Amino acid sequence: MRPDDPFDDAVTARAVIAADGTLARWSEGARLLLGHRPDEVVGRPAAELLADSAGPLPLPADRWSGTLVLRHRDGGTVSVWVLAHHRQPSGDGPGEWLAVTPLEATDYDLPDDPLVRKAVFQSPCATMVFDQELRLRGVNDAMARLLGLPADHLRGLRPTDIGGRPQHSELERQLRHVLRSGRPHDMQTHMKARAESYAHAWLARLAPLTDRSGRVRGVCVTAHDFTEQFRARERLQLVNEASMRIGTTLDVTRTAQELADVCVPSLADFVSVELLDPEEGAGEASGRLSPPVSLRRVAQQSMTAGAPESVAQVGEVVVYPENSPQADSLAAGHSIVASVQAGDLDPWLAVDETRARRIEEYGVHSMLSVPLQARGTTLGVAAFVRFSHPEAFTHDDVLLAEEVTARAAVCIDNARRYSRERETTLTLQRSLLPRTLPRTAALEAATRYLPAARSGVGGDWFDVIPLSGMRVAMVVGDVVGHGIQASATMGRLRTAVRTLADIDLAPDELLTHLDDLVLHLSEEAGGDSGPGEVGATCLYAVYDPVSRRCTLSRAGHPPPVVIPPGGPAQHLELPSGPPLGLGGLPFESAEFELSDDSVLAFYTDGLVTSRGRDVDQGEALLREALSGAAGPLDETCDRVLNSVLAPGGATDDVALLLARLRGLPSSQVTTWDIPADPALVAPIRKQVLDQLAAWSLTDASFTAELVVSELVTNAIRYGAPPIRLRLIHDAATLICEVSDTSHTAPHLRRAKTWDEGGRGLLLVAQLTQRWGTRHTAEGKTIWAELALADME
Length: 792
Prior knowledge:
Layout: E1 13-17, E2 23-26, H1 28-34, H2 38-41, E3 63-71, E4 77-86, E5 96-102, H3 114-118, E6 126-131, E7 136-139, H4 141-147, H5 159-163, H6 166-181, E8 185-191, E9 200-210, E10 216-225, H7 227-245, H8 252-263, E11 270-275, E12 293-302, E13 317-320, H9 325-332, E14 336-339, H10 346-350, H11 353-362, E15 366-374, E16 377-386, H12 395-432, E17 443-450, E18 458-466, E19 472-482, H13 484-502, H14 507-526, E20 536-544, E21 549-555, E22 561-563, E23 570-571, E24 590-593, E25 599-603, H15 615-626, H16 633-644, E26 654-661, E27 669-674, H17 681-694, H18 701-718, E28 723-729, E29 733-740, H19 760-767, E30 770-775, E31 780-787
Antiparallel strand pairs: 1-2, 1-5, 3-4, 4-5, 6-7, 6-10, 8-9, 9-10, 11-12, 11-16, 12-13, 14-15, 15-16, 17-26, 18-19, 19-20, 20-21, 21-24, 22-23, 22-25, 25-26, 27-28, 28-29, 29-31, 30-31
Helix pairs in contact: 7-8, 7-12, 8-12, 12-13, 13-14, 15-16, 17-18, 18-19
């Protein structure tokens, strides 16, 4: 029954009472029961209907039922059972209404009624019968206990008269459907029994009742309590949801937040996750913790806008003293349930007035604290709080919370282990990469390295290596795989490249030696698995600022991009060599003449590859971002990363090296052809001194004269013509080079006491910053560098 139903019902006495206590509406059934016409009682105080007018008429805050003695129009009294409801008035309309059933037997007490006779009222299942008008014709004791009303007082009521809840409106709709169709129907509903604090789950079976002619005369409703099955299904669903939603990433904070999100509101009204703070060296504990315990809140979720359990916010450190659920559960090593009503929290709240005030404000009545434990270590604690849920945490709730928390703890531990390994690998990677780039006259360089957003640190590297004769080597490489192993392999390859570059190998020869090294590393790492266990790609380039020519060779690596001054960016066409580690295949070099201020861009494939696009699209974006790279190289690096990388970050680690080339002016280079005559060494020394004076480098004249004399004399004595002397200088260095066509290389040795020779190269090594031999296709070049700053 609804309060706004039309009052033409001649059976059930119904009335609506206004907010001021006067009768606002009066049904025909009420007139038949008490004898009062509507015009005699509407507008008058409802309390006048009481036989004892001194007593108040019960106007419920929500719902009230009981017996009253009402006054009949003829002066007599009528004992009735009253079902009273309150509804929020809209505007100035009435607020309360009453449904009245006489206690005496009426026409609805029909023990011989075939509808009642067909119902099995002795069944332990809750059963009730409705007629064609959807009036209740009978209930058994089990249904009466479920509804919390006397069985004799329910007859004649409609589904909505029983409680006015939404599920009863749905029941009425389904009853009408069964009456029309004549087919049974099952429906699920949730009702809270009057004596229970939690709602039961019921399966209601609606079966049509027919007479002998097959006509549907009513509906029998049988309710089966499947609360335990329903709750078991809910628990299983929560565990399944937790397994899918918790641990989607290897991020500690996000994993903890996923735990809180899953459990609200299914298990608790507020959940907080707090971990031992790794910043204080207590990221985990192998045993139980003694209070007080300092924890950092990393996640929380609430049904309300605030956090009712405490005043702490995410990111803050909270100190839990003794007698707090969090500290006690960590000390005990198991879950603890605390009840506010039982006073379990009184010692804790007595020392924290703010927390006590928040708990009272939100009506918190129960707390559950579960330690986060994984692989024998304690990571922190998860606190579950209830204030909207009417029932306290049960034993099943504790088991469910422990199951979900255990899954989350493993995920958090995995995330922490991954974070530590990633940080270790990243530290190793950064230590193996050059911290600063050398400053040379040949080029200006800028670099960037980005680890992958998901797969972690890999084996990408870059380097800039000064060579003899003002030349500079540039290298970019990429080791297959990720993690510490890839970083360690990268470090070994970078060291090998620097060693091979120091002996001035040509780019293709250097890659051949590097390929052999990768094969050896693969054999060490793979054992019986054969070659290919370790793989890498590499691009090696040597730029000569004197000739302005750049020689490059690559091993399975993307070709570089060149940006001429004022011109568009374009890829250099290089022979595509095989990746390192395959063995047996040759590498080729290509040489290009590049103008001053040209920019070379070296990169690894992580920059241009992603899941959402192909390599060609990435390379097109790279060329577009590099076009017009006339500004500072650092700004160009940032623009390239922002333009080319996908919004979600790189799927592989990225290394980027930009180099702006600077040619050496011809005025800073002088070359002489030397006749193979020892008598002409003195005039050569004189020409060198004159050139140094022209360059204003007289401070270096003495040392340079000795070095030139020794190198030229050795070339005349032990080399093969033609012989050539070249002097190169910039602001910081003077280089002396003597070339001949012999392939025999001099070796530094210690001369004995009575030896007349053998001290020349030792003298050169002592007087210069460094020296060495560079082999060429025509022969060799012996060079020596003098630091001009040391000559001042």
